[in-house]
């Protein structure tokens, strides 16, 4: 379902589901440049709803909006990595000398046009239409982080695959800190090149980390950060022992994880 957020039914990258999911409808596909898209999957008895959210598309009509939301959610301060990024920032919260205004950051994340705010409206609609259903949120990469943030917002279960660190964004949105995450050790998400400022690495809830470097012999490579590899080369891999004889690694909370250690965050409105 997370993989299908990138595709439409009948396309070559669409994964057929079993018969218990006999209804689905797409959202966000009308405008090719609108990056917030995916599918809502409904079980045959309407008891379970799965909201699947698309992640970042590097090349394509939605890449500009995807990158903007990535940099706003997962950078330390408006995608100001260093002085060379001064003309590529995504908000105006920098307050000189590695300081950043907290209130400004929180307000920047809740603009109506941003993916998180659009997602809030969509989940509210689903809760209204299916008041008694079990609603789950899933996604890959940016979509996984959004699923996690929306899950925290509404107290719904969420599963994120290879998501950037969303804990700092959750704090800026003043959210509680629950859901789980699935990651592979060969898929590094924190990057600061090609216009992306994905600096955060700390996650909400517990992480299931597949050690693809030691178990599968992969090299650390951002090109492994695709949902197809997660499905076909990790989840479907013929590996009996990922960790201590387990078919799936144990979920663990991240201990002593710190984001943006060189930055100082506070109320610096007058210094901007």
Automatic annotation (TrEMBL):
Domain Fungal lipase-type: 123-152
InterPro entries: AB_hydrolase_fold, ATG15_Lipase, Fungal_lipase-type
BP term (GO), one: piecemeal microautophagy of the nucleus
Molecular function in Gene Ontology: phospholipase activity; triacylglycerol lipase activity
Cellular compartments annotated: Endosome, Multivesicular body membrane; Prevacuolar compartment membrane
Keywords noted in UniProt: Autophagy, Endosome, Glycoprotein, Hydrolase, Lipid degradation, Lipid metabolism, Membrane, Signal-anchor, Transmembrane, Transmembrane helix
One Gene Ontology cellular component annotation held by this UniProt entry: vacuolar lumen
Membrane topology: Single-pass type II membrane protein
Main location: membrane
EC number of this enzyme: 3.1.1.3
Keyword Membrane: yes
Gene3D superfamilies tied to this protein: alpha/beta hydrolase
Pfam families in the record: Lipase_3
Top-level taxon in the UniProt lineage: Eukaryota
Catalysed reaction equations from the record: a triacylglycerol + H2O = a diacylglycerol + a fatty acid + H(+)
Subunit structure of this chain's protein: Binds to both phosphatidylinositol (PI) and phosphatidylinositol 3,5-bisphosphate (PIP2).
Family under the similarity heading: Belongs to the AB hydrolase superfamily. Lipase family.
Function: Lipase which is essential for lysis of subvacuolar cytoplasm to vacuole targeted bodies and intravacuolar autophagic bodies. Involved in the lysis of intravacuolar multivesicular body (MVB) vesicles. The intravacuolar membrane disintegration by ATG15 is critical to life span extension.
PANTHER family named among the record's database cross-references: LIPASE ATG15-RELATED
Name the record gives this protein: triacylglycerol lipase
Species assigned in the record: Armillaria tabescens
């Amino acid at each position: 379902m997370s993989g299908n957020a990138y595709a439409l039914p009948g396309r070559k990258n669409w994964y057929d589901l079993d018969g218990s999911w006999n209804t689905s409808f797409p959202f966000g596909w009308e405008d090719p440049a609108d990056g917030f898209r995916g599918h809502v999957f409904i079980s045959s008895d309407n008891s379970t709803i799965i909201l699947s959210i698309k992640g970042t598309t590097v090349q394509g009509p939605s890449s500009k909006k995807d990158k903007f939301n990535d940099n706003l959610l997962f950078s330390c301060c408006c995608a100001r990595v260093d002085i060379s990024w001064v003309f590529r920032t995504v908000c105006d919260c920098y307050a000189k000398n590695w300081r950043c205004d907290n209130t400004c950051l929180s307000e920047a994340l809740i603009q109506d046009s941003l993916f998180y705010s659009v997602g809030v409206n969509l989940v509210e609609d689903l809760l209204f239409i299916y008041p008694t259903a079990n609603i789950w949120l899933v996604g890959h990469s940016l979509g996984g982080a959004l699923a996690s943030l929306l899950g925290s917002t509404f107290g719904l279960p969420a599963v994120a695959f290879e998501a950037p660190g969303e804990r700092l964004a959750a704090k800026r949105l003043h959210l509680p800190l629950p859901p789980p995450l699935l990651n592979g050790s060969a898929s590094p998400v924190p990057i600061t090149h090609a216009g992306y400022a994905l600096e955060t690495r700390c996650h909400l809830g517990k992480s299931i980390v597949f050690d693809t470097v030691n178990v599968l012999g992969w090299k650390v490579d951002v090109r492994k950060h695709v949902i197809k590899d997660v499905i076909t080369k990790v989840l479907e891999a013929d590996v009996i022992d990922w960790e201590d004889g387990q078919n799936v690694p144990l979920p663990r909370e991240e201990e002593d994880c710190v984001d943006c250690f060189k930055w100082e965050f506070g109320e610096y409105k007058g210094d901007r």
